[in-house]
């Protein structure tokens, strides 16, 4: 319950809710990411949270994908976790920043080999003639890296950190009288307030 959120910052309660969701739901790390073009046309997709700390929420992608292209011209973004079994959601709004090369390399090294080859094989978000074309690219990169124990990270693949300016916790309640608690980043600290449902 939101009554159990007593901290003056949002990351500790997020970690508690996330840990509970991970026990109850498959792929609890799924978050819906909203981006927009420079002229404000939005787009939305699900991505996976790969790390979270006091600086923000991290996900990885092809830097030539639609989401990346939009973030490079308009870094303002929003994300939403919805955990149906808990009847809870967490929303965050802020600015996306690219992670460091070292951080991207470290995460890429933990990916299964097939996922590393997939990163090389996919021209993400661009037209694909057929599934066979993708499969041929996978075969090509599988052969290319066959004699290497470690596959290097492509320079067109990295991560973003959404640095939040606002994080809202939402808990379902009867009669649609939901609990809402928002943290707003205010200088060096967070301001918290309740919202009407």
Descriptors for this entry?
197 residues, alpha+beta, Pnp Oxidase, Chain A, nine-stranded antiparallel beta sheet, 5 helices
How would you characterize the overall build of this protein?
- The chain has 197 residues and is an alpha+beta fold.
- Helices cover 28% and strands 37% of the residues.
- Strand 1 (30-36) and strand 2 form a beta hairpin.
- The longest helix has 14 residues, at 11-24.
- The radius of gyration is 19 Å and the shape is elongated.
- The mean pLDDT is 96.
Question: What is the compact description of this entry?
Answer:
Helices cover 28% and strands 37% of the residues.
What is the CATH level 1 assignment? Mainly Beta
The CATH superfamily bears the name Electron Transport, Fmn-binding Protein, Chain A
CATH architecture: Roll
Strand content: 35-45%
**Backbone CA Rg:** 19 Å
Let me know the average pLDDT.
96
Structural class: alpha+beta
* SSE pattern: HEEEEHEEHHHEEE
Q: What's the overall geometry?
A: elongated
Distance between the termini: 15 Å
**CATH topology name:** Pnp Oxidase, Chain A
Tally of helical runs: 5
Characterize the main sheet.
Answer: 9 strands, antiparallel
* Number of structural units classed as domains: 1
Residues in helix, %? 25-40%
Low-confidence stretches: none
Instruction: Report the strand count.
Output: 9
């Amino acid at each position: 319950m939101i009554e159990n959120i007593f901290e003056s910052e949002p990351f500790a309660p997020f970690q508690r809710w996330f840990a509970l969701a991970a026990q109850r739901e498959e792929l609890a790390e799924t978050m819906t990411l909203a981006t927009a073009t420079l002229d404000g046309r939005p787009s939305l997709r699900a991505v996976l949270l790969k790390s979270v700390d006091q600086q923000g929420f991290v996900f990885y992608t092809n830097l030539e994908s639609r989401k990346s292209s939009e973030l490079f011209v308009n870094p303002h973004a929003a994300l939403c976790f919805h955990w149906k079994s808990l009847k809870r959601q967490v929303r965050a709004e802020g600015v996306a920043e690219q992670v460091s090369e070292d951080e991207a390399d470290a995460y890429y090294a933990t990916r299964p080999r097939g996922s590393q080859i997939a990163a090389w094989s996919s021209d993400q978000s661009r037209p694909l003639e057929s599934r066979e074309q993708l499969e041929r690219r996978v075969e090509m990169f599988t052969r290319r890296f066959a004699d290497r124990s470690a596959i290097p990270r492509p320079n067109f693949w990295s991560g973003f950190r959404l640095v939040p300016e606002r994080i809202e916790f939402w808990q379902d309640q009867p009669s649609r009288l939901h609990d809402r608690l928002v943290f707003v980043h205010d200088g060096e600290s967070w301001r918290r307030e309740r919202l009407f449902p």
